[in-house]
Amino acid sequence: MTKVLPKLKVDVYSDVVCPWCFIGGERLRQVLASLPEPMDVELSYKTYLLDPGIPEEGKDLAKRLEAKYGASATEIFARPTQAAQELGLSLDFSKVPNTYNTLNAHTLLRHADPARQPALARAFFEAYFLQGLNISKEEVLLPLATANGFSAEEVKRLIADQGERNATLIAANDTQKLGIRGVPTFVFNDKVGFSGAQPEAIFRQAIAESLEPDAIK
Fold it and tell me: What is the pLDDT of residues 166-199, one digit of tens each?
């Protein structure tokens, strides 16, 4: 008799130029990989656009953050750099001079094979944060998407289609209507959710609360 595995649905609201989204997603990935019992996990990245008005060439990241938070870039970057290093991510903000428009990246994520979407999202994060690449450019997105289930023709068509880009903007607006105002936000089994790249224990607690009491130890 085949054992029915506990179902764990995880919705992740994030943007691929958000460092805490990168960190929170990695923390979630490590927690899921270390669960004591096997589960049927459905992980889905949802659309959230931090700033859809950023031009394709990007804007200076340090200056934008200093203007927003009233602190030096060195101070602002210190916490996410340390948190990333604790997870084994070699995050170096000297490689990330600009923030970029993520409309194209999210358009591709919306159409990704659900089984491969988390890997594609992680590839986008790594391209931006670890390599400092312009994540809005077709030449950057194309090899990442084709390595995760897309054909080159699909990538080019989706990026060039204004109707698809508008659909991504609508998806981002729908996220706002859900009351999600900050990222990352994680929702487990449509029952339990929290915002921020919380400690591992918070992830484990949320997973446990979203399942039957005896489904996880």
Answer: 999 999 999 999 999 899 999 999 999 999 999 9
> pLDDT tens digits, residue range 82-112?
999 999 999 999 999 999 999 999 999 999 9
C-alpha dihedral, 177 to 188 to 125 to 199, nearest 10°: 110
User: Is 215 a member of any domain?
Assistant: no
60 belongs to a structural domain:
yes
Residue 57 lies in a domain: yes
Q: Which domain holds residue 163?
A: 7-210
How many other C-beta atoms are found inside a 10 Å radius of the C-beta of residue 50?
17
Write the CATH number for 36: 3.40.30.10
